[in-house]
Amino acid sequence: MLEKILQTKREELKEIQLGQQEDVQKISFYQALQNKARPVSLIAEVKKASPSKGLIKESFNPVQIAKQYVKGGANALSVLTDETYFKGHHTYLTNIKKEVSIPVLRKDFIIDSLQVEQSARIGADAILLIGEAMSPEKLYELYLQAKELHLDCLVEVHSREVLQGILTIFTPEIIGINNRNLHTFQTKLQQTEEISQFVPKESLMVSESGIFTYKDVQTVKKAGANAILVGESLMRQEDQTTAIYDLFGEEVYEN
Ligand SMILES: O=P(O)(O)OC[C@@H](O)[C@@H](O)c1c[nH]c2ccccc12
């Protein structure tokens, strides 16, 4: 599946249009994740659909969802911009960025410097770089380019081998462990437990995918995660603010 997606991205690259620089202020994704109001920080994902789950949210208003996440105290947002497989769009990110004051991560399959440039222009504060999608050398090249454009990077890995390959080249500030198996699409939180011991102490560690309950939050917290990236379980609920409180086992009385 990843190979198929990357093939589509290579095709799209031939017709990529960079567009104008959006007039927005960049803010630090890294710093937002350091905020310790909860046991782990939350990156809440605006996600309409996925290849494995199909359509996740029927009535989808990206800006409204983003605002509900902010109200629930999310530290940062992740916005899917891939159109073909996740039914996302780069305008979702731009529109959200203009309406919120927390940092926004561009969730896409970035494999080329043009996409990094484009991410900066559409108003992203951070980008995702997937270890399994390119060589560690290429990843480092894009990481450095992103830094120059004041974009933080979430460096995602699915396996210990790929993480270790990256660490021979450099130490990313933020490392994401994806709990989703790239071949079977199944998620298991054990992935975080197994790989976390190889994450350097100086990196912020994010556990991604398959987090549904407060128990799941505690499991990855115990494994050393500083932050979590959650999409589906929050998107499936009616109200995304309440969804966040539920995820953290919080009781909130509104008056
Ligand atoms: O919806 P979930 O299971 O909570 O997962 C969110 C996020 O981790 C997932 O969307 C994701 C992780 N890495 C990606 C790379 C591309 C697209 C999507 C992803």
Automatic annotation (TrEMBL):
Its EC number is 4.1.1.48. Pathway: Amino-acid biosynthesis; L-tryptophan biosynthesis; L-tryptophan from chorismate: step 4/5. It catalyses: 1-(2-carboxyphenylamino)-1-deoxy-D-ribulose 5-phosphate + H(+) = (1S,2R)-1-C-(indol-3-yl)glycerol 3-phosphate + CO2 + H2O. Keywords: Amino-acid biosynthesis, Aromatic amino acid biosynthesis, Decarboxylase, Lyase, Tryptophan biosynthesis. The keyword Lyase applies. GO terms for molecular function: indole-3-glycerol-phosphate synthase activity; phosphoribosylanthranilate isomerase activity. Gene3D superfamilies: Aldolase class I. Pfam families: IGPS. The keyword Membrane does not apply. It comes from the Bacteria. GO terms for biological process: L-tryptophan biosynthetic process. InterPro entries: Aldolase_TIM, Indole-3-glycerol_P_synth, Indole-3-glycerol_P_synth_dom, Indole-3-GlycerolPSynthase_CS, RibuloseP-bd_barrel. Belongs to the TrpC family. This is Indole-3-glycerol phosphate synthase. It comes from Priestia filamentosa. The gene is trpC.
